[in-house]
């Protein structure tokens, strides 16, 4: 019999890994709640028609479709029709309702928009929600990229105020400072990108331009130039775009970049509107941020070297965010000190619910890539050490009356809020100690005959090797310490 395996692009998580992941979830949850966001969950699968056409051509190809069930109950005619449709699906990019009507969710934003439309009469707007659930993408697995992964989203719908953008920037900032990840929050506007397309004479090629610009960190300006040329941009248009991107690099702070953009966008009203939105968002952020909108130095370690990085917000006009539904300010978070793609991103979507028939309901949201955040924290070794401890103390089971005494102690430890367990069987002493060592349990308690008669317990520190006999109340204080 072959060894069992799991699908490519998925992972098992050990108890220690789950505790670390829960630390991330709990940190994000507490910050979302602090900012007044409400929790929400949606089904793992959606109707295929809900998802397709919302993520662009590349995104649609990555949607995991679910085959219709009940094939055995079909008539011969229906089976033949399904086989014919299946052949079409294999031959080209084609989706047939005979074969598939449902799909695993690609992200949390489109299901959220669908929820808002379905429940619009029950909600109080602006509606602020956060959602933490897994999503699935039929992508090629690689470092930091999985086929099943978790997202944590925070969105506000029913308000056009840029205060919302600023608060989401604050949430990003506070979350990554708390988690100990050095970061850069890139900010841009789809309206600036639309202005750039106007200035280079190709407003009809906005999507082609943004897809190319979004790859500048991966393929460089030369690669972007080639892709733009292949998409039909002439040499003059490419030079205009390259000059805009290069000009941004020449300035040392966000305000200088904004002033330069305002100067160069004079020929585009939508571009100027995008500049105003970025400037106002950063201004609001400075008022709301607990760090005053200043750069935050975050210490971290790489190869034994103690380093620090001034984390904060950077205007970056090459940032495009490849999803078609963004209409205004867009953001993306990149970690520093680790080779990893973005660990968060989002933006304004003025007509997302319009995809489902509810017009004029603007929204803005951000997403956290939990799996990548985990990998970054693990590589930088910034998880708190206490997370891997789990059980603080284990009571050795000597059997008989000593077992009953140990259970009394166990109850008192748990009542005091101390994570403790007893070895369930009165097995050999060495076996119990090996178990505690393998579990990395810090303290082993020995309630033997002598200890029971004196109403005390021997406490052995597995880290230092020290052992002493104390009262149960003193034992509790040691474990708390």
Secondary structure topology:
Layout: H1 15-34, E1 38-39, E2 45-47, H2 48-51, H3 56-61, E3 65-67, H4 76-91, E4 100-104, H5 109-118, E5 127-136, E6 148-157, H6 163-179, E7 183-189, H7 190-199, H8 206-213, H9 216-230, H10 235-249, H11 254-264, H12 269-288, E8 296-302, E9 305-315, E10 329-335, E11 344-349, E12 363-369, H13 370-380, E13 393-395, H14 400-415, E14 420-422, H15 429-438, E15 443-446, H16 449-453, E16 456-461, E17 467-471, H17 472-480
Descriptive report:
A 9-stranded mixed β-sheet has the order 1-5-6-12-11-10-7-9-8. Strands 14-13-15-16-17 form a 5-stranded mixed β-sheet. A 3-stranded antiparallel β-sheet has the order 2-4-3. The chain is α+β, with helices and mostly antiparallel strands. About 1% of the residues have low confidence. 42% of the residues lie in helices and 21% in strands. The protein is elongated, with a radius of gyration of 28 Å. The longest helix is centred in the N-terminal third of the chain and has 20 residues. Helix 1 runs antiparallel to helix 6 and helix 6 packs across helix 12. The two termini are 50 Å apart. The protein has 17 helices and 17 strands. The protein folds into 2 domains: 325 residues, BirA Bifunctional Protein, domain 2 (2-Layer Sandwich); 91 residues, Rossmann fold.
């Amino acid at each position: 019999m072959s060894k069992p395996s799991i699908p490519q692009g998925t992972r098992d998580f050990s108890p220690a890994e789950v505790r670390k992941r829960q630390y991330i979830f709990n940190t994000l949850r507490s910050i979302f709640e602090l900012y007044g966001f409400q929790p929400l969950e949606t089904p793992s699968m959606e109707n295929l028609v809900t998802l397709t056409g919302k993520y662009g051509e590349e995104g649609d190809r990555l949607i995991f479709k679910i085959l219709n069930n009940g094939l055995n109950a079909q008539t011969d005619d229906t089976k033949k029709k399904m086989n014919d449709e299946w052949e079409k699906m294999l031959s080209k990019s084609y989706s047939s309702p005979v074969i598939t009507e449902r799909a695993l969710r690609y992200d949390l934003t489109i299901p959220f928009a669908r929820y808002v439309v379905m429940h619009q009469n029950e909600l109080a707007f602006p509606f602020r929600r956060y959602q933490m659930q897994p999503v699935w993408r039929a992508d090629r697995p690689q470092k930091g990229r999985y086929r099943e992964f978790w997202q944590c989203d925070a969105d506000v719908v029913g308000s056009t105020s840029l205060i919302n953008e600023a608060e989401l920037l604050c949430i990003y900032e506070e979350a990554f400072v708390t988690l100990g990840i050095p970061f850069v929050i890139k900010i841009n506007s789809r309206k600036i990108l639309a202005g750039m397309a106007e200035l280079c004479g190709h407003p009809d090629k906005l999507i082609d331009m943004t897809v190319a610009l979004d790859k500048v960190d991966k393929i460089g300006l030369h690669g972007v130039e080639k892709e733009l040329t292949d998409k039909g941009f002439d040499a003059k248009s490419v030079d205009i775009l390259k000059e805009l991107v290069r000009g941004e690099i020449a300035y040392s702070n966000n305000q200088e970049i904004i002033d330069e953009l305002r100067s160069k966008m004079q020929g585009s009203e939508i571009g100027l509107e995008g500049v105003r939105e970025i400037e106002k968002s950063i201004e609001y952020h400075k008022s709301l941020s607990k760090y005053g909108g200043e750069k935050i130095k975050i210490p971290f370690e790489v190869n034994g070297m103690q380093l620090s990085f001034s984390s904060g917000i950077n205007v970056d006009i090459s940032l495009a965010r490849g999803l078609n539904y963004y209409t205004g300010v867009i953001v993306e978070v990149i970690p520093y000190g680790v080779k990893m793609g973005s660990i968060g991103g989002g933006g304004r979507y003025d007509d997302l619910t319009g995809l489902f028939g509810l017009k004029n309901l603007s929204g803005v949201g951000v997403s956290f890539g939990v799996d990548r955040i985990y990998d970054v924290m693990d590589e930088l070794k910034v998880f708190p050490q206490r997370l891997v401890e789990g059980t603080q103390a284990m009571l050795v089971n000597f059997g008989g009356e000593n077992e009953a005494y140990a259970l009394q102690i166990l109850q008192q430890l748990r009542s005091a809020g101390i994570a403790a367990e007893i070895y369930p069987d009165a097995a050999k002493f060495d076996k119990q100690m090996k178990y505690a060592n393998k579990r990395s349990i810090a303290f082993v308690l020995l309630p033997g005959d002598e200890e029971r008669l004196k109403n005390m317990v021997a406490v052995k520190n597995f880290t230092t090797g020290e052992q002493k006999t104390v009262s149960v109340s003193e034992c509790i204080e040691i474990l708390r310490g």
